[in-house]
Specification:
Blueprint (H helix, E strand, L loop, with lengths): L9 H13 L5 E5 L6 H13 L13 H8 L5 E4 L8 H10 L10 E6 L6 H12 L5 E7 L7 H5 L2 E4 L5 H12 L3 H10 L4 H9 L2 H13 L6 H14 L3 H19 L14 H7 L2 H19 L4 H17 L9
Parallel strand pairs: 1-4, 1-5, 2-3, 3-4
Helix pairs in contact: 2-3, 4-5, 7-8, 7-9, 8-9, 10-12, 11-15, 12-13, 12-14, 14-15
């Protein structure tokens, strides 16, 4: 495997290769980006490049003994630290400190990957900070996190920060089509919903989210015509029958996002994987109104995570959709 075989992060890959070429690899780096954009894979490939016995054109050969050991997870100088349950504990950092008392067994540079650095508890983060303040030679720390703001500022200041970008929709669509053997138009639709995350795209494909999206949008479209009393009945039926209301609102949020993108001319509302009403709703909506509706749906999802009442939360979203997308003129009076 080479950089070309990984999820595409061309800017990050070029930057890492430049560091190797100039011999300026720092002692600690922080890989930042959403889940599913290739941080862990690139960390492993970077470790291979640093210790490859026969690198070519700033790429690991993938055939030598060090490369093979990294690939199969048996290299003694690649340490991979992950949260136990939901946190990284101080005992895990103490174990690293013990290992650092000795030189690398066979690698030119030992690599210590902290996968999920935002899960470091304060005492564990402070213990790691002491190591990074006076790092032993021939060791590289790679801290993988969603956002640098989620990590202790003192740790961030000791690391070279590397920002990963969302993956291109077309790459994700090709990955889904090959992996799940689904039609390309469906793969593109799921890729657009993934927000650039391969992990999220996989989850959408495995959960048959395309069918769920159609079911949710059918419910949303029925909000355009009934009276207010009928609307209460519709929302009550929706709240009662849904398997996961937060996932339903995720579908609604994506739909509003597509309308907003069509409104500002950033997607093709007539494409084969675009819902049929995107174009007409985009033309008669304002950018400000769509942004407000998007925020309303996002806030409703946050309230659900805090155990808010499902029916009242859903009613608020449905009223906002009626008001924001179908206009006051579409309200039918109470009978």
């Amino acid at each position: 495997m080479s950089f070309a075989d990984l999820p595409p992060q061309p800017r990050v890959q070029r930057f890492l290769q430049q560091l190797v070429r100039k011999g300026q690899v720092p002692h600690a780096m922080m890989f930042c980006g959403m889940g599913g954009v290739g941080k862990a894979q690139l960390a492993k490939e970077f470790s291979k490049l640093l210790n490859c016995a026969d690198p070519k054109d700033l790429e690991a050969c993938g055939r030598c003994a060090p490369c093979h050991k990294v690939d199969v997870g048996t290299h003694p100088d690649l340490l991979w630290i992950q949260p136990e349950t939901s946190i990284i504990k101080i005992d895990q950092i103490r174990e690293i400190k013990q290992r650092l008392r000795f030189r690398p067994h066979e690698a030119r540079r030992r690599t210590i990957v902290i996968d999920g650095a935002h899960n470091l508890k304060d005492e564990a983060g402070n213990a790691l900070l002491k190591i990074l303040e006076d790092p032993p030679p021939r060791n590289l720390f790679l801290l993988l996190t969603l956002e640098s703001q989620m990590v202790l500022p003192t740790l961030v200041s000791r690391c070279c920060r590397v920002q990963f970008q969302p993956l291109p929709d077309e790459w994700i669509a090709g990955y889904l089509a090959d992996t799940f053997e689904i039609p390309m138009d469906l793969a593109r639709a799921l890729a657009r919903r993934s927000d650039g995350s391969r992990d999220r795209a996989r989850a959408l494909a495995e959960e048959n989210q395309a069918a769920r999206q159609r079911e949710v949008l059918d419910r949303v479209r029925r909000l355009a015509s009934p009276s207010m009393m009928d609307l209460f009945d519709l929302t009550a039926d929706w709240a009662q029958k849904t398997r996961d209301l937060e996932q339903d609102l995720e579908c609604v949020k994506f739909w509003v996002r597509e309308i907003l993108l069509a409104r500002i001319g950033m997607n093709d509302a007539s494409g084969p994987d675009s819902p049929e009403d995107i174009g007409s709703l985009a033309r008669r909506s304002t950018r400000e109104g769509l942004l407000e509706l998007y925020d309303t749906v996002e806030l409703a999802m946050q309230h659900l995570r805090q155990n808010a009442n499902k029916l009242l939360t859903l009613e608020g979203v449905c009223f906002a959709i009626r008001r924001g997308l179908y206009g006051q003129g579409h309200w039918n009076s109470l009978s």
